[in-house]
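Batch manifest line 482
LIGAND: iron/sulfur cluster
JOB: complex structure
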Amino acid sequence: METLAQLADTEEYRDHLSTVDESGKRIWVYPKKPRGAFYNKRLLFSVFLLSLFFVTPFIQYHGRPLFLFNIFERKFVFFGTLFMPQDFHLVALGLITFFVFVILFTVVFGRLWCGWACPQTLFMEIVFRRIEYWIEGDANQQRKLNQQPWNQEKILKKGTKFTVFGIISVLIAHTAMAYLVGMDTVIKLVTHSPSHNWAGFIGLVAFTVVFFGVFTYLREQACIAICPYGRLQGVLLGKDSIVIAYDYVRGEPRGKLKRKENKLADEHLTLNDFIKPQGDCIDCKLCVQVCPTGIDIRNGTQLECVNCTACIDACDEVMDKIEKPRGLIRYASFNNIANSQAFKFTPRIIAYSMVLVALLSLDAFLLLNREPLHATMLKVRGTLYQEMPNGNVANMYEVNLVNKTDQPIIITDFKIANKKGGNAKIAGNQVVVKGGESTTAVVVVELPKNQLDGIKTKVNIDIWSGSKKMTTKTVNFLGDKE
Ligand code: SF4
Ligand code: SF4
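JOB STATUS: finished
ARTIFACT:
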């Protein structure tokens, strides 16, 4: 039976963050260099994702980037398809679909995204941290270096590290900028003087400073204190979510390996010369030492855990050494560990899945029926109507045409669809709207008086490009029947 004091001690981790001391000061985390099967797989996958990140802005499709998130000009390109402000509903729906997908994914697989695909984790653990190990050594050497005075060795190592970190931050900043404004603009920014585009230059400098700050100083705090996705875990994770978990059923009661009484420390000892604890955990704390967020996964799933798998690898290595099966820390759900339950589809998963399927269907429908030409047709400001010598009534409209495709669209005709005897004429013979651009035109619509419904008549106008009807607009037509 545990005493109250023991209970208080084991629950103590709940009262504070592992990276903040009692005075509120940050405790710098020195994670031990990870190694093992999971780390190797993550390394390979990260190389693939990082290559994609750096190469994608250079890929052009039909003369435009594969992806572009130009929030300044409100132009978005997904898989080479241009979306303009007129497609805002599609972009908004796409984002909602994405969020539902993320929620569903998290409910089932926990923070798999954080460990395997989040750019923050990829750059931090696979790029910056590796460079740090390479220059400054493993955790203990880094700790020692930080504590020692600024001698030649420290200046050289820190100088090299910050220079390399700076160069990589510049690269990331330029690539991130390319996703916002396109690679062509970034190349112009790089090859011209800053005075050519001050806004772009300041943007690049700001990005570089932010990335350098995040990967050099902020580090795990970005996941713990800033990332909104991390904060959502408390509401998204359930007892059936697959997370990185310590098998406390198997591991407890933990205890250190104890040397048998008749064995001396300086003898050549094998595993048989030790008394093993009752549980499989030998309390070596290697899983804590490798954790980049400084937590002890044996305390259960925690907000700080970014599912980096380092503790799995560390513990598997220990299990190999003490000849116990691997997987004391592994991907598992709470119910899997506590009740030996296999994965099952919970009502929550089924509900989210149904919402996701509905949203995906709606996305597909809207995308397939997306009009290549967006038009708005408004009466020319300050005009009413005009009676023509032939007795018809004429209204003048200003038409704004947005071409959502890559190719130019030639507007040849405006035709009245729901009234007889009238006509609609473009000022000039035809209108050419360049790919991805917009233009305006003036159209005069004439109707016989007998077609008017009153002072205001709804008129449907079809807009044609040769033999292809592009879209239909409904306008208010003013005129006196009498
Ligand atoms: S607890 Fe394990 S998986 Fe989670 S962040 Fe720490 S080392 Fe990574
Ligand atoms: S690495 Fe494994 S054995 Fe060592 S303390 Fe962690 S859970 Fe226990």
